[in-house]
Amino acid sequence: MRQLGYAAMLAFVLAGTVPLHRVFGLSVLRQRRRLALAVLPVAAVFVGWDVLATRAGHWAFDPRQTLPARVAGLPVEEWLFFLVIPLAGILTYEAVRVVLRDGLVGAVRDAAAGRRQRPGERR
User: Which residue intervals of the chain are DSSP H helices?
Assistant: First the structure.
């Protein structure tokens, strides 16, 4: 059960942020190319850094706290970390932006009514 800690943390982060997409009528998940351009270059740099640092022995991942699956010496959860956490950050940022622009009540009301914000659209 302890091996699920890292994976559970990632699932918890997703469970808390992915609903923001619907609640606030965001378009983040529909803009896949833009999302990939924001997340993947940074993920590539940090995954590379992780691989090199792990191989050099600067740090390690406790196998008792991670799933056994490894890719290039890193637990699968570490690879997912560099996708999940930036996605959560972007979703949170966009939700806060909508709330600051429309107020919480207006943003939730618009999302509930099915009105979606288009990229670059201001209300």
Answer: 5-23, 32-55, 76-112
Q: How far apart are CA 9 and CA 35, in angstroms?
A: 22
Q: CA-CA distances (angstroms) from residue 31 to 17, 51, 71, 72?
A: 17, 29, 28, 29
Cα dihedral 110, 104, 18, 119 sign: positive
Q: Is 103 left (phi over 0), alpha (psi -120 to 50) or beta?
A: left
Gap between the terminal Cα atoms of the chain: 47
Q: Note the pLDDT tens digit of each residue in 29-49.
A: 999 999 999 999 999 999 999
Q: Look up the pTM and report it.
A: 0.81
